[in-house]
Amino acid sequence: MPETPAVTQVLTAAVEALGGQQRDGQVAMAEAVAAAMEDERHLLVQAGTGTGKSLGYLVPSLLHRERVVVATATLALQHQLVERDLPRLAEAVKGTPGVDTSYAVLKGRSNYACLHRVREGVPDDQGALVQMPEGSMGAKILELRAWAEKTAEDGGSGERDHAPRHTDREWRQVSVNHRECLGAAKCPFGQECFAELAKEKAHRSHLIVTNHSLLAIDAIEGVPMIPDYDVVVVDEAHELTARVTQAATDELWAAEVERSARRSQRYVDGSEADDLADAADALRSAMGEASPGRFETVPEDLADALVLVRDAARACISAYPKPDKDGDADAGRTQARGAVQEVFATAERMAAFSDADVLWMGEGTERIPPRLCVAPLQVWGTMRDKLLTDKTVVLTSATLMLGGDFGAVATGVGLKPTERVLEGAPADAHASGTGLPWRGIDVGSPFDYGQQAILYVARHLPPPGRDGLVKAQLDEIVELVDAAEGRTLGLFSSRRAAETAAEAVRERLPHLTTLAQGDAQLPELAKQFVADPHTCLFGTLSLWQGLDVPGDTCQLVLIDRIPFPRPDDPLMSARQKAADKAGGNGFMQVAATHAALLMAQGAGRLIRTTSDRGVVAVLDPRLATARYGGFLRSSLPPMWTTTDPAVVRKALARLSATAR
To answer: Where is the Helicase ATP-binding domain (predicted)?
Structure first.
């Protein structure tokens, strides 16, 4: 068997073949990742934007003797890996002894078009499979069906990301979840199934690219979704706990219970489906009497209604006839029963009212009825027990050190600060004891933040209040945008604040183009923002993390206030209270950590290349005056800092003059 080449040797060859420039941080990262895989020791790697961290973990992953899973948070990064980085890397190192370049993409079943649903139709409320070609939605469904058929004919993946533009509701008409699936053996189109073909390819591949949610379902929920693997590399790891929480969150609507009852009436001969419909009415009534927000104690009527739904759903499932002896599957029956199983599982969890869960009711709107939600109080315990104990995990991101330390992120995923193996310690440190040893390294950034960026804290402004942006803040925004001549990305704590700021800038600086989130789809807004430097783009959370706009397009990043969680956020407030009860500082462990992570991500929008220059302007004086301000500032890149507005306006004016 040929000897596996050194990771630096393959990395150098790959960078040269790709026409790139090798960076010291990238080499240090690749060597650390390779060592972690070899020593079966967890690793946290902070790698700043521009380090080239994708190659820093992909090269050692290809060299590792066993299968490796790479999990990302965003579709954008997944697309980058699969469409750009991996094909080019595989070509660059093709034929190198000891390197297996096979890879595959694997997602949850509902991310693939279902050929049975495309060809046979969607169950109606009675469970019958019906075609839906009417109206504008019908036209879109026909377009999606035609795309799926063409993709099947061409041997494509059938992934949602490659489909024509559509809404979630439209996609549900051509896809199924795992409970609705007939199974490859029973489905008449099982041999062509996109999801099954993806699984087969994954079984044949050395490296599998997936997402945080599927990783959580496979490792933590215990539902086998991914072929056996030895190591998982979690990119965008700062989002892992949020994504795992999201994957473990369930919701329940009275209308959903009612619909599952109606669909069951076609298949259940007894009164069980009618009993489930009655339980739906009881749930709707109980929810109508309850107040939105977190339930520290569940109202008696609501608790009784959840038990009623749970028991009625269990009885309804039992009343379904057994599958046909000849193995033929009735798609309508399978999917109707799957809907009742979903209701039962969620109602059972909610009715248990476990201390490990947080239960709350969301406010309804004109279009969306109120819903019950249940989420885990914390996920670090299950991540530690179900993932970190069984696999070697490498976590990487540009923002893993909060307050200048790995402790907050490590604790959040289930690693203990006392288990950290410090640099210089032998590889087998902690090996003889209990616990999960881990290392944390910061490989730095190719950017000189002290020379390239200014952090401006508007200390003279009043602290932000509940009434949104005030005149002083709007004046400050207009003056800064005017000095920058546009070129501004505004990151706001709410849609209302973003729209208020956009309206003020449009009115007082009409010669600039000002865009607000909601004016168009985000890709279209980003395209307009890049096309014209005299443009401002104002928005909320999706802009904080998902936008990459290098160059003169973005020379000013505005942050209206420190992004603490809302005080009425049910899950965050519950976690903060639990941390206090355990003897910790709930505000720092939950609220300040949440804010630090978002601020670091938001500030990271400014400097994307070695030639970028600009200002991050925070309009919240608490960053300079509050006791926790130091923790937040030390979570940001090491920018030159000032509180003088005149200095900042002059700097922006010089930058805009240079960019003309």
So the answer is: 12-297
pLDDT, position 180: 81
pLDDT in tens, 573-632: 999 999 999 999 999 999 999 999 999 999 999 998 899 999 999 999 999 999 999 999
The predicted model gives 396-407 an average pLDDT of: 94
- Alpha-carbon span 642 to 629, nearest angstrom: 14
Q: Beta strand pairing status for 640-642 and 614-618? A: unpaired
Average pLDDT over residues 525-550: 83
Q: Is residue 60 part of a domain?
A: yes
**Of 451, 508, 448, nearest in space to 474 by CA:** 508
Q: Which domain holds residue 215?
A: 7-102+205-243+379-442
What CATH number should be reported for the domain holding residue 402?
3.40.50.300
Q: For residue 647, which of 491, 488, 452, 480 has the smallest C-alpha distance?
A: 480
pLDDT at 432: 42
Whether the model pTM is above 0.85: yes
Q: Are strands 513-516 and 103-105 parallel, antiparallel or unpaired?
A: unpaired
End-to-end Cα separation, the chain, in angstroms: 60
> CA–CA separation, 557 vs 605, rounded Å?
7
- Residue 85 placed within a domain: yes
Q: Same structural domain for residues 626 and 482? A: yes
Strands of 451-495 (E only): list them.
453-457, 488-491
The answer to whether residues 238 and 254 belong to one domain is no
The number of angstroms, rounded, from the C-alpha of 396 to the middle of its chain's C-alpha atoms is: 14
Q: How far is CA 540 from the centre of its chain?
A: 15
Helices (H), 604-644: 622-625, 629-633
- Residue 543 within any structural domain of the chain: yes
Q: Specify the range with the lowest mean pLDDT, choosing from 216-230, 396-410, 543-557.
A: 543-557
| Residue 2 predicted with pLDDT over 50 | no
Domain count, the chain: 4
